[in-house]
What we know:
Distance between the termini: 27 Å
Helix content: 10-25%
Strand order of the largest sheet: 6-7-13-11-12
Order of helices and strands: EEHEEEHEEHEHEEEEEEHHEEEHE
Mean pLDDT: 95
Low-confidence stretches: none
CATH class of the largest domain: Alpha Beta
Number of domains: 3
Largest sheet: 5 strands, antiparallel
Number of strands: 18
Radius of gyration: 20 Å
CATH topology of the largest domain: Uridine Diphospho-n-acetylenolpyruvylglucosamine Reductase, domain 3
Structural class: alpha+beta
CATH architecture of the largest domain: 2-Layer Sandwich
Amino acid sequence: MPLTRALTLEHNAPIPTWYGIGGRADRFCRPESLEDLKACLELDPNLKVLGDGANLLVDDDGVSNLVVSLTAPAFTSVRREGSTTIAGSGANLPKLITSAVRDGLAGIEGLGGIPASVGGAAIMNAGGTFGQFADAVARIHALDRRGGGHEVTLDRKDINFNYRHSGLDQLIITSVELNLTPADPIALRDHLKEVMAYKKSTQPMAAKSAGCVFKNPTLTHDLKDIAQKGSRVSAGMLIDRAGCKGTRIGGAEVSHNHANFITTDESAKARDVIALLNEVTRRVHDAFGITLTPEIAIWKRT
């Protein structure tokens, strides 16, 4: 594939995350166009896409994969075509929510307080108490890693969305089409305020964290005084009941405010967070026979 310009690669580049810890990328690129992104994929089919960095922990040793950041205008633009909002994968989700509420478009206001890029929100089907990203998706546009960067479009019905899952891991999302419906802007704004107030009262919003670190598990057996087999239960509740709140390893600590958050201080290393994840997993399994699955992405050198 002929290139219109040479890719600009940074070496030994920092990988910005909300934790603010972890190693560097051997190679880092900010593609400015779809053709640039295809060229990146040719350079490294196993490249990693950096979104907002809010749901990510990078190991202290960094990563050898090419890391791409889709912050160029080609990947952050948002436009509307009739009832459809088309957002680039690098668009900021909180800003998109704010603009939709202001313009009287309903469908994503329940995701208030979730820091993510649009592409990242699609890949992990971001969500919480008030809804999930999949509820507003009409279709996604992406490059297929397995198809040599072939452009693909998938309708909502063809995407395997479920709890914190999309099945889109082999794709590099370039844009997402959302179905947002006209509604009263004042009512939407009030609902968004309620969502944000709930999050501020239940989560350590001011601390350095990556949000909820474990997925809420589906029980494989009955748990007395908790729930029956097949029920999805709160990971935070299990972590709390296993006595993990306040547990600390190095600069990482299980939040006293919400047990499914691991917060860090200025002394923290990624290895502290990883060790604490392992310790929490062990304690919950010992107490309940349930194996927790991380919700955050952990990048390691391969």
